[in-house]
Amino acid sequence: MIRIGIVGMGTRGRLFARAVAQNHDATLVAIGDANPQILTEATARFAGPGYTSYRELLEQVRPDALIVATPDVAHCQPVLEAAQRGVHLLVEKPFATTVAEAEQMLEAVERADIFCQVAFENRWNPAFIRARETICRGEVGEVELMNGRLNDTIFVPTRMLYWAAHSTVGWFLLPHLVDLALWLGDKKAVRCYATATKRVLPSLGVDTWDAIQAILSFDDGTQAVFETCWILPTSLPTLFDLKFEIIGQRGALFIDTQDQMIHQAGQTFTYPGTLVTEVDGRLRGFPVDMVDSFIACLVEGRQPMATAHQGLEVTRIVAAVHESVQEERVVFLR
Ligand SMILES: NC(=O)c1ccc[n+]([C@@H]2O[C@H](COP(=O)([O-])OP(=O)(O)OC[C@H]3O[C@@H](n4cnc5c(N)ncnc54)[C@H](O)[C@@H]3O)[C@@H](O)[C@H]2O)c1
Hints:
Helix 1 packs across helix 10, helix 5 packs antiparallel against helix 11 (308-327) and helix 6 packs parallel to helix 8 (169-185). The protein has helices spanning 11-21, 36-46, 54-61, 76-84, 99-112, 126-136, 155-160, 169-185, 200-203, 286-300, 308-327, and strands at residues 2-7, 26-32, 50-51, 65-68, 88-91, 116-118, 143-153, 189-197, 211-218, 223-232, 240-248, 252-256, 264-265, 269-270, 276-279, 282-285, 331-332. It is globular. The protein has eleven helices and 17 strands. The strands form four sheets. A seven-stranded mixed β-sheet has the order 12-11-7-10-9-8-17. The protein has a six-stranded parallel β-sheet with strand order 3-2-1-4-5-6, with helices on both faces. A two-stranded antiparallel ribbon has the order 13-14. Strand 1 (2-7), helix 1 (11-21) and strand 2 (26-32) form a beta-alpha-beta unit. It has 334 residues and is of the alpha/beta class. Residues 7-13, 32-35, 38, 54, 69-72, 74, 92-93, 119, 121, 161-162, 172 line the site of nicotinamide-adenine-dinucleotide.
């Protein structure tokens, strides 16, 4: 039985707690959150001892694995402390928000010889799994262009994430698109150019970018264009809009995960979520599959599907996007 602790009991931590609790090969042994009120609510719901300090959690409970679901800028320290103690890791995206931190984290993981999975959950998302199979079978030919859009409604930075001003739409959303491009295209990014706008969110007291647009070039000439924004109107049918196009030399794939196959009209018009659902009291869907996959890797002693190496690679690219925005120039990655 894999003994798992979770640090950060917000939206993601609570989802992970359910996924771990229903997995027959794992047990949730402790939860941690810096906010005592959130911790009290979480311990009431998930039982188990609760800690406001992840260091205390690690020392007193000695879990086999730790899931890190703290805000974007607070992944590094819990990862380093867990790695020092030989504790396996599932780390939320973004792996880190600086290249220096990501390098330190990878080094700690390698030194400790532990397994570390990064929560690039779209690798478990059925549409992207099928897209990768199609590309690998050569059905679209050599991939030449990738266009990705991952936008959120303004609810996310203004109401959902109390820490939005300490991150950016780039760190929060781009890692998904960049990881998908690397995973689907299997190419190396060599250059990027990005621009951004900052008008609406600062006027609402959230001092961060409204939107970041990036063009990435890969070593074989493949181009990718990525769009992220945090200011879509809340009247949209979902909280997010994720679309991805892969254009190959002999075919193309068009993925739209916003449309969840059911549209509901009433006082408002919504697309009720179907990719994460509850059946027989059990949570189902790709984030749960991702947790199950992590646990299976620990049980079977094999490397996870999304590793700390890939976490560092994505961090390098997203950091270059931010550098390009700040310095208004093309940034070369190698
Ligand atoms: N993989 C995905 O698709 C996906 C989706 C949403 C969020 N995320 C990522 O997951 C992480 C968490 O996001 P969220 O939406 O759950 O945020 P959240 O704000 O709902 O939860 C974060 C929790 O961490 C706690 N916390 C803050 N600092 C801490 C510390 N030092 N030690 C312990 N607890 C601490 C906060 O009190 C809060 O309860 C972020 O990095 C986010 O980008 C990933």
